[in-house]
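<context>
A single protein, sequence plus fold
<sample>
Here is the protein in question:
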Amino acid sequence: MASRVVLKLSGEAFADPELNYGIDPATVARVAEEIAVVHHEGYQIAVVVGGGNIFRGLSSAAAGMDRASADYMGMLATVINAMALRDALERAGAPCRVQTAISIQQVAEPYIRLRAIRHLEKHRVVVFAAGTGNPFFTTDTTAALRAAEIGAGLVLKATKVDGVYSADPELDPDAKMLDDLSYMEVISKRLGVMDSTAITMCLENDLPIRVFSMAKPGNIAAAIRGEPVGTLVH
């Protein structure tokens, strides 16, 4: 069981479940309440947020744009999500700080590794926004990087599927969910758990990854507690 974890939330964690776009206060509140429950149990929780519910650099909306410009727009979208999550966490009774890899000091702290660790030690949730601060890197890679930097024991990836499948379950009716995988299996079979940069970083730093569905109530709390939900990559 890891007492310090990094939870990766995609933009879907903030969106209206039907529209899959924008920020739905009820959805954000549910996620925040689950995080707050395990925060009060003593777990040190850092969260990396995506921004795909607002803008995704690799999307039709960004077609024709310069990739770096599109990625920076995506990073700014994650800051909006981070502020929404901080508000919801504070209302759920979990003190929270947002740190951004792009300097926006009027709304959030700059990312400083030792300050982030100190916040966790003082029992605050830390939300990391703006990715790594560099284009061409995903928020999955950010989660792996921040987990290594702050000495987390586990990376949790909350998604819209139950776990990792042997094939795309929407295309292959015989696809089976896999409970346990090695990093090399994920890379060699191109299973799409996270991008290869993130998987390699977790491999090199011996960071296990748990992939699970955030749609089922209670799953986020269960995953943070180390319960066997979804798929474990190690």
Observations:
- The chain has seven helices and eleven strands.
